[in-house]
Amino acid sequence: MTDTIPTPDWNPLDPETLQNPHGTYARLRERCPVAHSDQWGNFWALTKYKDVTSTAADAKTFINSVQNVVPHVGFGKRIPLHVDPPEHTFYRRLLNPPFDPDKIAAFEPTVRQIVVSLLEPLITKGKGDVVEEFTYYFPVRVLCEFLGIPQEDALHIKNHGERYAHALETGDYETVGAESKALYDYARRLVATRKAVPLDPKTDTTSALLAARMDGQPIEDEVIVGCVRQLLVAGHLTLTLSLASAILHLALHPNLQAWLRQEPERIPDAIEEILRLYPPTQAFARTATHQVEIEGRTIKAGDVVALVWIAANRDPDIFPHPDEFDLDRERNQHLAFGHGIHKCLGAPLARMELRVALEELLARTRHFEFDDSVADRPVIENAWPEYGPRSLPIRFTT
Question: Are 346 and 235 in contact (CB under 8 A)?
Fold first, then answer.
């Protein structure tokens, strides 16, 4: 007797889903919270907060080492994303020190300097595309400083990362492979440089990996290369979208702008609510190790399960009035940075970058708004698995 494949419940690439993802996910949460799709080799999509978080927290039943993204592209093993405990635990402990709160605080002046250098010419000009002229460059310049990479390499890394992400969204896997190879090649050169001239392992991620020992033996160079390759993309693509979403939300809500200028200490609260509403990554995935049931649906061993953060973040069972921005929302335990042992390593750095960028933007302007002379209306591009504005024309009043 052969196993039957479930009838598809939804398609993440349907025009309706692409144009109105929150409406689609609201219907799925209510009528089909564990939905099956025949896209990308078949997978399940979890849309309710309790199912997403319980699955993400169960690292024995749902693992990362087989498939952790939808669609799946098998171009190298990237630590710690592609491994499970106890291997994952070892690498996360190695990678945690540079993201310590004291080190992030010490790094803040550098981040602020980068923000100002990019914002000043844009604001002085009075208008421009915030994505093309600010959020596109800011995160990768911070990443280069954080990883000790020359600033002249920032655009090289950014362009390869953007082409990689776009090719993944459009299913151009030949380009995905070529761009991934380019990023791996850069990571190899960085590892070779650190082997020749190590930096302080307490502050430099690559040097920490080279200095580490697993069972008394050094970590293989290709494993370190995979880890660096992961940081090169994860460290800037998502922040580009998060910051653009934050600026768009403020541009459309002038009263919130005015309030945050008067009460800048509330900017972190605003950031958390914006991250809840507009997470930059729609979903990550896990692979089931044995058969389980979720909401009455049978998930078999080897099935891929997508944890749809963007749907869980608007679950009314957890977040009252989920589609509304609420600066005073209590217990805002959103999933923009994921959940469980694979929760985003760089979340402390990302939060600081978002806060500093918004502090400087609000302090240096009296008002900013969407520039409707350039486009009829703002567009948040829903290109699975990324989510956020790819272009954002803004007018500034100083």
Answer: yes
Sign of CA dihedral 110, 240, 237, 69: positive
Of 346, 102, 96, the residue nearest 208 (C-alpha): 96
Q: How many independent structural domains does the chain possess?
A: 1
Give the mean model confidence (pLDDT) for residues 77-94.
84
Q: 249 in a domain, yes or no? A: yes
CB 257 within 8 A of CB 104: no
Which pair of structure tokens corresponds to residue 319? Answer: 């977040």
pLDDT value at residue 2? 40
**pTM summary value:** 0.92
Containing 181, the helix (H) or strand (E) segment is helix 173-196
pLDDT at 396 over 80: yes
CA distance 206 to 83: 18
DSSP 353-391: HHHHHHHHHHHT-SEEEE-TTT-SS---EEETTEEE-S-
Pairing of strands 292-294, 297-299: antiparallel
pLDDT band at 25 (very low <50, low <70, confident <90, very high): very high
Q: Please report the pLDDT score of residue 1 as a whole number.
A: 34
* pLDDT of 74: 66
Is 9 within a domain? Answer: no
CB of 394 closer than 8 Å to CB of 130? yes
Q: Are 310 and 21 in contact (CB under 8 A)?
A: yes
Q: Residue 352 falls within a domain, yes or no? A: yes
